[in-house]
Design goal:
The complex is a heterotrimer of chains A (316), B (293) and C (339).
Chain A (H helix, E strand, L loop, with lengths): L1 H28 L6 H4 L6 H10 L6 H14 L12 H36 L4 H15 L2 H15 L16 H35 L2 H8 L4 H13 L1 H9 L1 H14 L5 H10 L3 H29 L1 H5 L1
Chain B lengths: L6 H9 L2 H9 L1 H19 L36 H37 L1 H16 L2 H11 L4 H10 L3 H15 L2 H8 L4 H9 L4 H24 L11 H4 L12 H28 L6
Helix pairs in contact in B: 2-13, 3-4, 3-13, 4-5, 4-7, 4-8, 4-11, 5-8, 8-11, 9-10, 11-13
Chain C lengths: L5 E12 L2 E13 L4 E5 L6 H9 L8 E9 L2 E2 L5 H7 L4 E4 L13 H10 L6 H14 L5 H4 L9 H13 L5 E5 L7 H18 L2 E6 L2 H7 L2 E6 L2 E7 H6 L4 H9 L52 E2 L6 E2 L18
Parallel strand pairs in C: 3-8, 3-9, 6-7, 7-8
Antiparallel strand pairs in C: 1-2, 1-4, 4-5, 9-10, 10-12, 11-12
Helix pairs in contact in C: 3-4, 3-6, 4-6, 6-7
Classes of the chains: A mainly alpha (316), B mainly alpha (293), C alpha/beta (339).
Main location (chain A): membrane
InterPro entries (chain A): BPD_transp_1_N, MetI-like, MetI-like_sf
Keywords (chain A): Cell membrane, Membrane, Transmembrane, Transmembrane helix, Transport
Chain lengths: 316, 293, 339
């Protein structure tokens, strides 16, 4: 187990290094590089730009600049926002909770519904339910999340008036129930794609497990059907899903971005879009790196989860 | 070179031969998708000729006309432009961007996948770690960052989409090639001293065409979706040039008064993306070597 | 004489796939008594495993697979039971051990828990009583240090140990009948001998009936009281062990005996290492007449390829053969089975 963890940690560190190189390359892609923001300042001269470049160390060779940028990244100096000069990490920190709440709810919905639909589809393969679930999942995968959000707002807020059209809470209310009612639509919209993905993989994984010899053994033991399904089929079929959950992290973060935009949810996605509007490059870059690192860490945790759930990996 | 059995030509044609074509035709959803795409493409490219209005014609007296009024089949937008006309010419852009981005990203992904799978060792490790790293970025974030830094012309949007969606293809191709590189004809070709590029291009590539075609079809679907995302957020195709994504740009604020602004382009996107996904699914069934025979 | 534990009459199994129906078991009859071991022998594809799975009702469900005939255990007709009531039979009445010790156990559960599970859903017993029983079972099947090993995962055990766990699991409720489907095939020779010894020993103590499925006459000679040889979904020869081994009547049986690599037991002449040429016919393309005739060195054209022979008694000992030429004097005694 310890060797496994060390190995995975090492892999994660290598991955974060490559991620940081891509991030650094993206910064330098901006016309004029990180200087571009100053270049827009009215009345700035070429000499001024060069002086700033020298101050920022931009006249040094790229590898040196990269190492400098990387070491700052590691010690938590991610620069400060152009908008209010507060450090990027604290800006991200402030907006993170709303996004985590939204992603958490959406993940719970997609895991529960996706598992249910996937397992049922596998147990009743080729039934009407399975067919509808298969086609439904493919259509769900094809609907743009933001458009589904718009349609949901149109029906549930504008036509029926059941749910609020956006925001995280009603100003002046902020009770738990108020948060909850604001959460329903965005988390359902964000969950849609993931329910589809999860149910497809769960179906395949369940079918795989159902053919295994140990399921036959469980039947030969005379176990009740529910016990065979829960302890021997679903239990084992869920193991690869932990890895999938890690791999799906970027999708769900990306989905959160558009969902937050449509529902004016005050999370990282809103922050990202707002920062784009202000050309707030430090925050944009910070969010880009943050989301990638979050994914790498998420995948690492998924690996640990798989090891905990599967003794073959833990002990192998 | 005649000493080497030439699986190349055989395999290229085998992909489209006999039982596979029939199998694809039997896949009802895939056929439905194919027909939809053909009709949609025809409508987008030929449709504008049959409409009374131009997609850029502004008629402020006819703002927010609901569908089926005053010769506007699908209504008008906040500037009184005909939505049907805009939908069709937006479709030309969105489909072209989606298709071109697919070609580009498939080329990138295939090249990287073949090189990684063929050479193996550190080449493979390095390239596949890069694939993992790219996959760690939420593609919408990466695309928006690039789009914010670079000037978003349709060509640039296409490149940005391609740059952020080649990884799946690379993974699939790499896995396939790893199996192929160990096969006899590859060894035979290597033995007579065929150069690496020749073996990769003529011996291996044709044998992994099936999975590439499937992945490419699904990439079109993905590319159309991605274009819609960034154009909706205002960083993709820039008005006045219409795209399905940017037609939805302001739809939210008129959701109450003019819901057709949101519904019409969204349906078009969903229809196109679903169709490509269905086709991809059918192709997967038909081209998966194990499921034929 | 005591009533048989298991009584099978006219058992037929048909599979349906892609609109085509294929019959793989064509009317099999047999009984097994308590304490008795019946060996069911045949090549792969002969229908012996399907027969054993049919008894356990472990085959796919109705539209894909149809079982007809009668399977009675202690007076209960298994083929008419609901799935729920069948589950109550599996374990306490019939248990089964399988061919693949490496994959028969769920890799994510501890072996002790998997055995306990077999008890828990059939008996009202306290946690500690179940635990004690698990330890008892593990030591009975010869697993050293059972109190510790019960916490191991299958992946931490060798194939032989895992097969012992599967056996412990099958014996947990002291079944009336144990079906062993090639339980030693995947194991190496010394472990194989240990497992056979273990099964014999347990049977002596519990008076359990056993249906032992194998393709290996060496194993049959070790363990069986009676033998049935199966070919293309039919019983082609059956009788007391010594009777069948010493004077096999059906050319197929003789071929199988010739296929046994080492043979010192049961007073059998050790002939040259024989094999049967050709393959078991596909169940949806059975030849007319005796299904074995295309491979049979003694097949007589115009006879064996026309009529399907019945399973008929050859003498008073219960030795039965399905061969048109079985009643002829053994003029072919010197004709060697083709090598």
């Amino acid at each position: 187990m310890i060797r496994f963890l060390l190995h995975r940690t090492l892999q994660g560190i290598v991955l974060i290094l490559i991620v940081s190189m891509i991030g650094f390359a993206v910064i330098n892609l901006a016309p004029g590089g990180p200087l571009s923001q100053y270049a827009l300042t009215p009345g700035i001269s070429q000499a001024d730009l060069e002086r700033i470049a020298h101050q920022m160390g931009l006249d040094r060779p790229l590898p040196i600049q990269y190492l400098d940028w990387l070491s700052k990244l590691i010690v938590g100096d991610w620069g400060s926002s152009y908008r209010d000069q507060s450090p990027v990490l604290s800006v991200i920190w402030r907006h993170m909770w709303a996004t985590l709440l939204l992603m958490g709810c959406a993940t719970v919905i997609s895991v529960v519904l996706g598992t249910l639909i996937g397992v049922l589809g596998a147990l009743r393969r080729y039934s009407l339910f399975d067919y509808v679930a298969t086609v439904g999942a493919m259509i769900a995968l094809s609907i743009p999340t933001f458009w589904f959000g718009l349609i949901a707002i149109f029906f549930f807020s504008l036509e029926l008036g059941w749910l609020p059209a956006g925001n995280m809470y009603t100003v002046g209310d902020q009770s738990l129930g108020d948060y909850a009612i604001h959460l329903i639509m965005p988390s359902a919209v964000l969950a849609l794609v993931n329910v589809a993905i999860w149910s497809r993989y769960m179906r395949a994984s369940t079918l795989d497990v159902m053919d295994q010899d140990y399921v036959r053994t469980a039947r030969a033991k005379g176990l009740p059907r529910w016990r065979i399904i829960s302890a021997h089929i679903v239990r084992n079929a869920l193991i690869p899903m932990i890895t999938l959950a890690g791999l799906q992290l970027p999708t769900i973060i990306g989905g959160a971005l558009v969902t937050e935009t449509v529902f004016t949810w005050p999370g990282l996605g809103r922050l990202f879009i707002d920062s784009l509007g202000y050309n707030d490059y430090p925050v944009i870059m910070g969010l880009l790196m943050f989301s990638a690192i979050l994914t790498v860490v998420g995948n690492f945790l998924a690996d640990v989860g798989v090891a905990l759930a599967d003794p073959r990996i833990r002990l192998g | 070179m005649t000493a080497i059995p030439d699986p190349a030509r055989r395999a290229v044609f085998a992909v489209f031969r006999g039982p596979r074509v029939r199998k694809f035709m039997r896949h009802r959803l895939a056929m439905l998708g194919l027909v939809t795409i053909v009709l949609l493409t025809l409508a987008c490219f030929a449709g504008p000729h049959f409409l009374p209005y131009d997609e850029l014609y502004i008629d402020l007296r006819a703002r927010f006309s609901p569908p089926l009024s005053g010769g506007h089949i699908l209504g008008t937008d906040p500037l009184g432009r005909d939505i049907a006309a805009r939908l069709f010419s937006a479709g030309q852009i969105s489909l072209t961007v989606g298709f071109t981005a697919m070609v580009l990203s498939t080329l990138i992904g295939t090249a990287i996948g073949i090189v990684a799978g063929y050479f193996g060792g550190w080449t493979r490790t390095g390239l596949m770690r890069m694939v993992d790293a790219f996959l760690s970025f939420p593609s919408v974030f990466l695309m928006l960052t690039l789009a914010a830094f670079l000037k978003p012309s349709p060509a640039m949007i296409t490149i940005i989409i391609a740059v952020t969606s080649w990884m799946e293809v690379a993974r699939i191709v790499e896995a396939e090639v790893r199996g192929q590189a160990a096969r006899d004809f590859t060894a035979a070709a290597r033995m007579i001293g065929a150069p690496h590029w020749w073996i990769m291009g003529r011996e291996i590539l044709p044998n992994v065409m099936g999975p590439i075609i499937v992945a490419a079809t699904l990439t079109v679907a993905r590319a159309i979706l991605l274009e819609a995302y960034i154009s909706f957020l205002g960083y993709g195709i820039q008005p006045p040039l219409p795209s399905w994504g940017n037609m939805l740009n302001n739809a939210q604020q008129y959701l109450d008064s003019a819901p057709w602004l949101a519904i019409v382009p969204g349906v078009a996107i969903t229809l196109a993306v679903t169709s490509f996904n269905f086709i991809g699914d059918g192709l997967r069934d038909a081209l998966d070597a194990r499921s034929v025979q | 004489m005591t009533d048989p534990v298991l009584s099978v009459r006219d058992l037929r199994v048909r599979f349906r796939s892609g609109g085509r129906e294929t019959q793989v078991v064509h009317g099999v009859d047999f009984d097994i008594r308590g304490g008795e071991t019946l060996a069911l022998v045949g090549e792969s594809g002969s229908g012996k495993s399907v027969t054993s799975f049919a008894l356990m009702r472990l085959l796919p469900e109705a539209p894909r697979c149809r079982i007809s005939g009668s399977v009675r255990i202690g007076g209960v007709e298994l083929l008419e039971l609901s799935e729920r009531r069948m589950a109550a039979i599996r374990g306490p009445r019939i248990a089964m051990i399988f061919q693949e010790p490496l994959t028969s156990l769920n890799p994510v559960h501890r072996v002790g828990d998997q055995i306990a599970e077999a008890i828990r859903f059939h008996r009202r017993m306290s946690r500690s009583a179940i635990r004690a029983r698990v330890i008892e079972l593990l030591s009975m099947v010869g697993i050293p240090d059972p109190a510790r090993r019960m916490h191991a995962y299958p992946g931490e055990m060798s194939g032989g140990m895992r097969q012992r766990v599967v056996i412990a699991m099958a014996l947990a409720l002291e079944p009336d009948l144990l079906i062993a489907d090639e339980p030693t095939t995947a194991l190496d020779v010394t472990v194989q001998a240990q497992i056979l010894e273990l099964l014999k020993d347990i049977q002596r103590r519990t008076n359990m009936a056993m249906l032992f499925i194998t393709h290996d006459f060496g194993v049959v000679a070790e363990i069986a009281d009676r033998v049935m040889v199966m070919y293309a979904g039919r019983i082609v020869e059956g009788g007391e062990l010594a009777e069948v081994l010493s004077s096999p009547r059906m050319p197929y049986t003789r071929g199988l005996l010739g296929s046994v690599p080492r043979f010192e037991d049961a007073g059998l002449r050790s002939g040259p290492l024989g094999t049967i040429e050709g393959f078991v016919p596909s169940p949806d393309a059975l030849p007319q007449g005796c299904a074995f005739h295309p491979r049979c060195p003694h097949a007589r054209p115009g006879l064996c390829d026309v009529d399907l022979p019945d399973l008929t008694a050859v003498d008073g000992t219960g030795h039965r053969v399905r061969c048109l030429r079985a009643s002829e004097p053994l003029a072919t005694e010197n004709t060697e089975v083709p090598a």
